[in-house]
Structure formats: structure tokens, C-alpha cells
Amino acid sequence: MAAVTQRILAVSGVKNAGKTTLIEALIPLLTGCGLRVATVKHDGHRFGADRPDTDSFRFFEAGAVASAVFDGEKFQLVRRAEVTERELIALCPDADLVLLEGFKWADCPRIEIVPAGAQPVCDSATLLAIVTDGDAAIPGLPKLRRDETERLADLIWNWWREQTMEQNLTHLDAHGNAVMVDVTEKAETKRIATARGRIRMQPETLSLLRVGALPKGDVLAVARVAGILAAKRTSELIPLCHPLRLGKVNVDFSLLEETGEIEAICTVALQGQTGVEMEALTGVSMALLTIYDMCKAVDKNMELSGIRLTYKRGGKSGEFVREPEESNP
After folding, report:
1. What is the pTM assigned to this prediction?
2. Which residue of the set 133, 154, 293, 299 is catalytic?
């Protein structure tokens, strides 16, 4: 998964409500949905990660401020210092979902476990659902039994997906109106994107193109220039794209005789605050359309297909590689 949008969800309830057991059951179900799950637990007692007679305890007794132990598969770091749950969460940047055990005071959404005969103790405004085998209920909130872990995992997964999609719809404001994304505070990084697409034609048309015998002349030379110009003017064609000072636009073609196709490849790069995926896609699309225009006098049955982003790098979302593909540009 890509991902990359981290969410925090607390599983709360009174002492001995069964929080650990529920989280233990949810982890494999959520992992099965494709989420990378981390957990954070608050222990009101002095837990024994650096117990007497362990090496880390001896190091601390000697005056160390931290002690780490690792092998080839895991590591443990112990520090004797105050820390918040947010600081611990920051140590798990690769997790899509962080489950907090307890944390009734934390400012985040939560599932509350309510023992039979009791009533919810958490602020109902923070609750996604309650889990109980008793009669407790909150109007408008889902109520699940303790054994309905699969249903609860589905609820959490749908919540995670909706929240992530809502955050990623950056071209909408709080009222649903279309807006240009504000990138003024984003750092400039090197950004690159490659898009590909194909046009299929009659074998005779491809042969004429290859030898330069079509009525309009050198088809690929004109299509290359058209693709470069289109990439440079993407913001004039797609309403919410930013005008960009592109550092590189490259359009290449491969003649695929066995399938009667031409593949166009457009690579765009810059040093800037926003990505160039749309520029690469626009460039390859216009190059293919220009091929169609240059060849339509002899072949009106040509067909465009497979226009897609195949590679991008740079920015917060990192690297994307479409699989399977040839080597990166």
C-alpha cells in the first residue's frame, strides 16, 4: 500500500475491560486489509524492560542515559525519560495505523469497550463505536459484541480509508469547492515523472511512417515537439495544475512492428514544490494525438491506449513504480 497516511485510533475502556485481547485480535485482521499496524500502550506501573540482572539495567546503573539491544530481526531501545504518546508515534513513521491501548484522555478517535452492566466513560464525540456484551448504547453509534472482531475490523478499515481519501482530496476546500493546492510552504525537491502510451495502426501505415512517406512528413519529429510543448503548457489545459518551470521534457518513441503500435514515452523533471505527473501524462497524450493527426489521411482506424504513469520520484509521497515495468528512467 501506499501509503502513507498515518491514523491514530485508541481502544479505550475501564481497567480490565479487555483492551489488550481486542487489539490482539484486530491486528491480524487489519493487517489482512493491507494496513501496517503499530501499537502504543501506557503502563501506569514501572514496567520491567530494564529489569535487575539484565544488561540494560546494569548499563543504566552505571550511568547510561539510554540502552539498546538488537539482533537481526528486532531491536529494543530503553530510555529513562518522560515521553508522550505523540513522541512514541513519531518513532513509527512506517505504520498506517497506530492503535493506542487505553488513553481515555487522548485527543483522537476511539473504540470503547464497555463491560456488561456498565456505561461508556469516554466522550461520545470521540467514539467510532462501542464494544459490549451488555445493554449500553449510544444513539447513532454502532454497537458491536466482543466476538464481532471481523465486523469491527471492517468498520476501522472503512474509517481509515474514508479519512485518508478525504485528506488526499486536496483540490477541494472545506465546502467542496475546487481550489488550487497551496504549495507555498512546501520545500523544493527534485521531481521526475514518466508516462507511457501507445497508438495502434495498420501495418501499412506504420511502414509508411517508418520510411517517412506519409503526406504530412516526419511524423515522429512533429509529435516529439508537440509532446514537449504540451507538457510545458499543462497548466493552461488542466484547470487546477500549477504553472511550472520545467527543467527537462523528453519525448521518445518505440516502433513495435509485431503489434503495429508506436509507444510514446514522456519524461519530465524539475526542481520545485509540486510534482510533474500531469505534465508527463499530458506530453505523452499530445504526442500520440499528433501521430493520429499526421496519419489520419491514410488510416482513420488508429486507436490510442494504455496511457498511464509508470514512474515518479520526489515530494512527500516518495517513489512510485508501476509494476511490471522496464527499468526506471
Report:
1. 0.49
2. 293
